[in-house]
Amino acid sequence: MAQPAKVTKVTKPGGKDIRMFFGATSGSQKTATQTSGSGSQPRDAIEISDDDSIWMKAAAAKSVPRTQGTSKPSKVAPMVVSDDEAPKKSVAPKRKKVVDSDEESDEAQGSPPKKKKTVAASKPSKANHGVLLSSDSEEEPAKSPKKKQAAVATKPSAAKPKPRVSEAKKPRASTSKRKSKKDEDFIADSDEESDMESPSSGADELLAPKAPSKKPAKRATAKAKVEEKPATKGTTKEKEKEKDQQVSKPKFNWAAAKAAKLAGPVAPGSKEVPDGAPDALAGLSFVFTGELSSFSREEAVDLAKRFGGRVVGQPSSKTDYVVLGDNAGPSKLAAIKKHGIRTVNEDEFLNLIGTRKGLGNGNIDEKTKKKMEKEQEAIRQAAREMEKREEKEKKAAAKGTKTVDPSSQLWTTRYAPQSIKDICGNKTQVEKLQQWLHDWQDSKNSGFKKPGKHGMNIYRAVLITGPPGIGKTTSAHMCARLEGYTPIELNASDTRSKKLVENGMNINNTSLDGYIKGTHDALAAGVPFTDRTCLIMDEVDGMSAGDRGGVGALNALIKKTKIPIICIANDRQAQKLKPLMATTYNMSFSRPQAAAVRSRILTIAFKEKMKIPANVIDQLITSSQSDIRQVLNMLSTWKLSSDTMNFDEAKTLAKMNEKYSIMSPFDITSKMLGPYLFSATSRETLGDKMELYFQDHSFIPLFIQENYLKTQPAKLRDLEGPEKTLKQLELMDCAASSISDGDLVDAQIHGPEQHWGLMPLHAVCSAVRPASFLYGTGAHYGGPGAMSFPQWLGQNSKLGKLSRQLTDVQIRMRLKVSGDKAEIRQSYIPALFPHIVKPLMDEGTSAVDEVIERMDEYYLSKEDWDTVVELGVDEQRDEVVMKKISSATKSALTRKYNGSEHPIPFHKALDIGKPKKLAAGPAPDLEEAFDMDEVVDELSDEEKKSNSDDVDVTTDKLIQVAKKKKAPAKNGKAKK
Amino acid sequence: MSLWVDQFRPRTLDSLHYHHGLSARLKSLASSGDFPHILFYGPSGAGKKTRITCTLRELFGPGVEKLKIDQRIFLSPSKRKLEINIVQSNFHIEITPSDAGNYDRVVIQELLKEIAQTQQVDLNAKQRFKAVVINEADSLSRDAQAALRRTMEKYMSNMRIILCANSTSKLIAPIKSRCLLMRVAAPNPQEMEEVLNYVAKRAPFTLPPEAAKKIIDDSGGNLRKAILVLEALKMQSPDLSGPLAIAKPDWETYCYKVADLIVSEQSPARVMEVRAKFYELLSHCIPPTVILKTVAERVVEKVDESLKADIMHWAAFYEVRMRLGSKKIYHLEAWVVKVMSLYKHFFYDMDMSSFD
């Protein structure tokens, strides 16, 4: 199993990644693994063992092959660290990880200059090397039981999910310890544990690395056990000794420290987030790719945003850094290469946060600075304008010319855009709308014949669609006002039934209102109609029960309107809006980018004297899915309690106001089968995963089943050749049998039992569990391995259709044939095929008579003939067969068949009388229940019978007894 | 001209070619005046329906051969129309409950009540009761079977029920105990040869024994299949001499192709290919158990001895699951993946051992 690990390193551009290994000092014992060359030859395991006697141990810090920018992340994976008893007190100032603390590390601690711990061994071992043995450790058991040993077994990364990052703030030592403990438990080495419990060494920790997922856990564990045993024995006693020695050790083993620094994460998830300046990453743009070892993608992205960085999806020449994780996508790697972007790994990224000083310290180049200043200026400027306007309005209000004081308005009204440039996003759409309104009168004069620049001018109305809160209504109002129209808005709070729409708008021009009232104005919603009026029908998809016929009437109105009409809706596809499709120009508004909204929100915040950094605003905007109205509402609520907001507060606030969003089954499938949901750094709980199933519990299992084989399972990442194939089949097997389990559960849910309480189990069996085996890259949109819609639905309805047709064939043949449906399909159709189909293929038209004769023999009609052809598979598939029959023959058959008389076995009962209704009573499903029923029913039947037989004797019990005997006899007679 | 299998079907108990003991018993039952409910069971193509028809004829006379088909329409509680086909003569009625799908219980109760409540109108009829033949009784749902129990006793005076099933394993014990069980075993090769020769004589032509043997081997005890194959062969080569290639039915060759796919490569892509083929078979009304059985037998032929038991074990395992579950394809696929995994493991194990 222990093959030499081959690790391909990728050197980072920065050149920091070279590790150095050192044998620490001349020890009485030589460390087995001293290598001076850095990482030249990755060893499977590195151990460091100390002699008990002297601090001059061979500190063999094995250099870890792991490069920071490692291209192959998986290999690098977490190391197992064995700690000596020494608690790690010192926190490395930088975010480097200490991998192992050997005794050496303890020594290192003693040394003042750097607080880093030495790292024992980190190993890039492939999945195969479950355990690394240092030669020292091997020797130890033999030599002296007392030697202290730190055995480090490094395992591949597949570590458990780590504690939350938030914990990271705790003293590091504790975290790592906890972690290591966890790992141990996982491996469940009883030996180890007992050792640890032994009184002498409290702190001793042996880490058995977790078996990489790829390896069968068993094997790995077994090995780990073997190797750890000797190691642990030595440890307990010696720890204390070492401690003493440590203290006396003055020397700092800088090489080991360096190794530790570079060694990578001790335990995923345990990394502390440095307390960097809030704008530490300001002005930088990041791309994340691959899987980071201790953060999930979202966390990492969050982190970047929290410190003011910008996160973009695809690397471009403008990207400042690419944070590389394991298994980065090849296309991104290519882009990185192409643009020569700086890459950093996770640790360096954290480092960046911790050390970069952000804006204040001149770290930022001139350009960015200027840009930012400019932005600030613009914001201040806009805020001033706003202020001025409000002043004016206030005055107006005071004078009584205007009724509303702006300060009493909702923010959404108060800060509604006043000019085109205030509108966030959808600029072109708004311009088009304005242009259309501008041209409307001309269009009307030309009879809506000239399409105009955007092809809009042939429409009398526009239908604006888009998600809520992105300014559809606002834009419509503003455009109308800007073009000199008086907007009349009818929305869901107005009744808009057919009658009201017709009367209100006077569509048919039947009303004499105008004459009688003596005005020439038609009144709608209290606003006089003129030709400078514009009707805005808001929320047209909300025209519901109370607005019967409203859409139709609206449509009629649109067809002859003399004023522009703007309809607004959320869902373009809605069935209800079908009629409007042809008569309106369809304009869809999309969610604006966060960047487009940001400055506006910042302006408002500034004006409201709230201190909210841009990245916080961004967070609010993205988490509300660019719903500007919601952001404003959130802010105005927040303003009541506080004037500042930080990133976390923004997150919680947004979370509280979260809209329940429904994902499409495709999104859910791609999320479930994707590489992140089940990765080691994923933070989703089982409940979260099941929640995905419940978004659409009837479809998700079908989608998973359809697509689960289309991934490149992440669990196979480090396997090659036969082992990979075997493992893959094993995983597929697990997934497929879980899906099969799921179907059994489904049968309990949807079958006669109706055990709906089993749905969570179904969620796990049919969706979560299969995905947990085979998750990985690959299931996505487009491309050869694209996710597809479940075939099952189509195939099932095809089965239904064909089996109905087969029933028809069977019942027609029944007069001649005894077989049931299955027999007809399996034996008769293949037998009939040479008689009623093949001749047509071979002989063509001349065989038609013979075929029809044979069909008549079995009462088969022309439709049944089609069915027979349709039911064929393989060589007799209908397409194949039909291709071989010339169309002349086909039409000859049809003509001839229709032209002659044919025996009919029976008439379809379709149109005869009313069908009988079946009782819907629930069926008792227990045998016992039937027994009870039986008794009761029989009694009642019996009674009924006797009642009907003889009414007058029912009162007399004696007679009834006699009657009972007679009754059957009577029946019998009657029968005869 | 009908196919031979229908043309030369025996019409009376006396003319049946095999299971003479069974025929004799049926005959004496029919004449005894104390005819019980009967459950015929046995593999398809063994002659159950033929025997039922003969028995009915024995009971009621040639009148039972005047069949008429009636289509009844029921409205399910969910307002769906259910078309039920009923084959009947003056003396008996034949229903196939699988037509009714989930509503078989109510449909059967309805029909049986209706039949049981009307008495035999033909005064000249030999028997006072009517016979109800229930085809595919093993596809009756548990509910329907339970509902049948009471009916069978209650209406004993007016009707007898004849159940026809492939296996009794899916019938509940109370039903079985209310019926006289009649096992119609598949004919043995000698009996089949006798029948084939009888057919040949009637056709008429002479059937060379080698050809007969070949057909019998191929048919696996299914006499219907044997006769159909015989006729097909006769069409192919009128003298039935020389090497005969028995044409397999389309679905069978397709199943073989699937099996070959499984054995020749084991990969996710291959599983999906197999899945597509399974879908095609299933949607063309080949029962899933037949698919599984055919494919499994073919796979077993092609793999090493030590794997055979495992493969069959898992086939049986997933067949049960198919019956319990609702989406057959899931279980078929799970079996395929299992077989692939087994096969691959075996393959590599062997590989390694050969190097050792």
Shape of chain A: globular
Give unreliable regions of chain B as ranges.
Answer: 352-356
CATH architecture of the largest domain in chain B: 3-Layer(aba) Sandwich
**Oligomeric status:** heterodimer
CATH superfamily of the largest domain in chain B: P-loop containing nucleotide triphosphate hydrolases
H/E element order of chain B: HHEHEEEHEHEHEHHHHHHHH
The most extensive interface between chains reads: A-B, 94 and 105 residues
Structural class determined from secondary elements of chain A: alpha/beta
The CATH topology of the largest domain in chain B is given as Rossmann fold
Topology, number of strands of chain B: 7
Which strand order does the major sheet of chain B show? 2-3-4-5-6-1-7
Strand order of the largest sheet of chain A: 10-13-14-9-15
Domain unit count of chain B: 3
Give the biggest beta sheet of chain B: 7 strands, mixed
The class by helix and strand makeup of chain B works out as: alpha/beta
Distance between the termini of chain A: 89 Å
Number of helices of chain B: 14
Main location (chain B): nucleus
Family (chain B): Belongs to the activator 1 small subunits family.
Protein name (chain B): Replication factor C subunit 5
Subcellular location (chain B): Nucleus
